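Internal ticket #5521
Category: modeling
Description: The requester needs a full-assembly model to guide mutagenesis choices. All entity lines are attached below as received. Residue total reported by intake: 444.
Assigned to: D.W.
Attached entities:
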Amino acid sequence: MTALGDLFRWLTDPTNWQGSHGIPVRVFEHIELSGISVLIALVIALPIALYLGHTGRGGFIAINVANVGRALPSLALLAFGLVIAIALGLGLGFWPTVFALVPLAIPPIVTNAYVAIREVDRDVVEAARGMGLSETGILRSIEVPLGLPIILSGIRTAAVNVVATATLGALVAGGALGRFIVDGLALQEYDQLMGGALLVALLAIATEVSFAALERATVPPGMVAIR
Amino acid sequence: MTPGEPLVRWDWIASHAADIGQRIGEHLELTVIAVMVGFLIAFVLSLLALRVPRLYGPITWTTGILYTIPSLALFALLIPYTGLSLLSAEIGLVSYTLLILIRNIVAGVRGVPVEVRDAARGMGYTERQILWRVELPLALAVIFAGIRVATITTIGLVTVTALIGQGGMGYFILLGIQLFFSTALIVGALGSVLLAVLADGTLVLVQRALTPWTRAG
């Protein structure tokens, strides 16, 4: 298994951990790129989903948007992101990738947040209304806290997808961990290629695991007993 | 894109019709192999998980990790072993179908009402007959839902295999990115989405033909 040996040497070579093209910088770029994309998606998706969920309107759209989202190939999104970014004069690299990642992240967030709010027991909502809570009060202190685990699971799906797909940003001259994979492919440097692949895989799994832990931690105390 | 260059150059599409047709065929071939092989593996693992419920956790955990690994990373990890080949592409594509298919097959079979199972047992069906003649047919709708999601996901992922020399419509997307050529980008991207929509529609029709009883209710 010389490939594994090369991979180990690449990962332990101190020069790969230094400078502006080193592993820590690429990991940071990857997290920055993914984080900003998920944040923009949240700002767009959450208000819409919470409004639709609270009023019970547009259920068909909110649920089916996730299926449409799955049909969009990530490479195609990157292509459109590139066209948009160049049309807006934002150049290569970072922004085309963000434009590709945001539409990828929106569908699971919308669908899960909508379902989360709808799943909240209507009797509880009625009781809150009877106690004089305003509509925004109901949303803020009843529906969102009770639906939080499901809302977070949508954000988890989005985040893992985004971390995985941010790799493709290197194709449009972006940084992040995809750089190692794309350069490794182009130069046939398999140690670099596999090193980058391993780091991205670990980052995606770490994202998945930390969100799963966050979901468990946010189950309201009153609901733990029922489960 | 280059100033003055139209968004879509129809003459390019016309002169590359044969090439486009060939890539569509390649895209479908990659997808069909992946979903069929994926289904066979998922089916065996699901039957195993249904017979030995203790194994369901480890099976979904393992396939879940495969599902989480970014597609490009998985393809890249395979290259030193299986090269820039159809095999590398298929290993990656198949691994992504497993979790989706297993979840649906197991959920479909487990969702069959206990009364139905008991009635079959009362009529003298053996466990094997109950599985093949009662549980699996009744689970077909849920299983098909899984096949649809797996197929759509795979059609999208096939584009990424362009990076390891396969790719179907992904070839045009990559070409478009490398040459800053919007016509190729659009042909590749829209072509892939269109294939996904058509494949999904076809699967819905097949499902309706296979499960006529679901329409009665």
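Resolution: model delivered.
Comment from assignee: Residues 10-216 of chain B form a domain with the MetI-like fold fold (CATH 1.10.3720.10).
Ticket closed.
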